[in-house]
Amino acid sequence: MVFNEFFLLNGNRRHQWIAIGETFLISIVMGMVSGWTSPSLAQLSGPDSPIPIDPHQAQWIVSLLIIGRIIGFVITLITTQYIGSKKILFLVGVIEAFGLLCLAIANSILWIYLSRFICGISFGMFTMTFPVYIGEISSPKIRGTMVCFVASGLTVGFLFGSIIAAYKTILFSLLALGINLIFVGSFYWQPETPYHLVKIDKIIEAEVSIKHYQCDVCNVKNEIESLKIFINAKDTYTYYDMFRELMISHNRQALINLNIFHILSALSGSFTVIFYLQILLTDARVTIINPADTVIALTTIGLVGEIMAVFVGDKLGRKVLLSVSNIGIGIAFIGIASHFLLLNYGYEPTNLQWLPIIATVLFTIFINFGLVSVPSIILSELFAPNVKTISVFICNIIGSLAAFLSSFTYDLLLSNIGYNLYFYFAFIIIIATLFVIIFLPETRGKSLQDIQEMLQNKL
């Protein structure tokens, strides 16, 4: 079904897939910015660096992307209610262009800092907006697949970024900027979502949007009336009202559970390790293959996990994907920590090279199988539209603060306890797995209304 609708673009959902395909392009750019980090940190920290940096500056290169994301979340929270998710995604491309230009002309660490901060802002806006946009235009049966598909662009982009940044930063900047401009030029013509158009009382445009995104034969009038009834019931909401509704028992419990999961995921180091893979493999004394080439190969292998997630995401369910993903990451972290432990005990590194290679392969496959995309799917599904923006904002802010703490303390912890740190990461990810199994609800195949009723019935 997915093959027919996406690759052949037939059926009533073809315009949904075209919009998602365009969103996939900006997802690639976001992934490229992240993929730039690992090879570039190794280069900038090396003896032949065009812009020499120390470990403290390397921490800021990683952390400024996260700080920018937090600013992006705030901008999105303030503006989404007024201009809609489609225009926010368009602005993501515009802001990203400025960040990439700063990187292209960078001749000092300050330009790199500015680029990372600006790209972080657009990354935060993208992360917070694309699940909302997909939730507003997509059919429930393929909503999860669409989110997984867009999220897979991060991995594709990460691969491109890892390959190109290993050779020339200016080439990286120009290629990323080119893809970004293609997105801006094509996505500009997409209509706003029906939900937002009804909200601002543009009914004729909303009818056109429904026909465009959904189908030519659906009952447009009924769709409009359903949206009107829902929006009119919630139209007088202030942010205070949204917070108050968010504190209703089932919403509050869902928010708490999601934030606990985001904190556990961030503190497990899963998203910090990505930025240090090349340095990790160098420290592991891997010589059978160049660490830079290994990172490229690992990212390519990681696509296997993304492809698997796209095609089984709406069959296995969110909890299964997350649980399998976390277990695989935990095994990988134990393998990495065990390798360095054996090195400390005097084992010959040449005979142990297979261990960090296999461990990092497992890590890249399993993080892309679930942890990269599934939290965004759950965020897009779990909350009613009237509290979705504020819920996504809170979850992303808390998750980013935890990620900032993890990235900023990584070198400090590594210098004090060495790669035993990865035993701690493995322990945290196992706790996260148990939390997913016990506390997170399964949303696969359910409409947004079904999900709300399920949450209420659980209390």
List descriptors.
459 residues, mainly alpha, Growth Hormone, Chain: A, globular, disordered N terminus
Describe the structure.
This protein is mainly alpha-helical. It has one domain (2-190, 236-457): MFS general substrate transporter like domains (Growth Hormone, Chain: A, Up-down Bundle), CATH 1.20.1250.20. Helix content is 82%, strand content 0%. The chain has 22 helices and no strands. The chain has helices at 2-7, 14-35, 37-44, 55-104, 109-137, 140-165, 169-187, 194-199, 203-213, 220-234, 239-246, 249-267, 270-273, 277-283, 291-316, 318-344, 349-352, 354-371, 374-382, 385-417, 421-439, 448-457. The chain is globular and about 70 Å long. Residues 1-10 have low confidence and may be disordered. It holds the Pfam family Sugar_tr. Residues 15-444 form the Major facilitator superfamily (MFS) profile domain. This is Major facilitator superfamily (MFS) profile domain-containing protein.
Q: Which CATH class is shown?
A: Mainly Alpha
Could you give the distance between the termini?
Answer: 36 Å
CATH fold field value: Growth Hormone, Chain: A
- H and E order: HHHHHHHHHHHHHHHHHHHHHH
SS-based structural class?
mainly alpha
Which outline best applies? Answer: globular
* E-strand count: 0
GO molecular function: transmembrane transporter activity
Keywords: Cell membrane, Membrane, Sugar transport, Transmembrane, Transmembrane helix, Transport
Organism: Aphidius gifuensis (Parasitoid wasp)
Domain Major facilitator superfamily (MFS) profile: 15-444
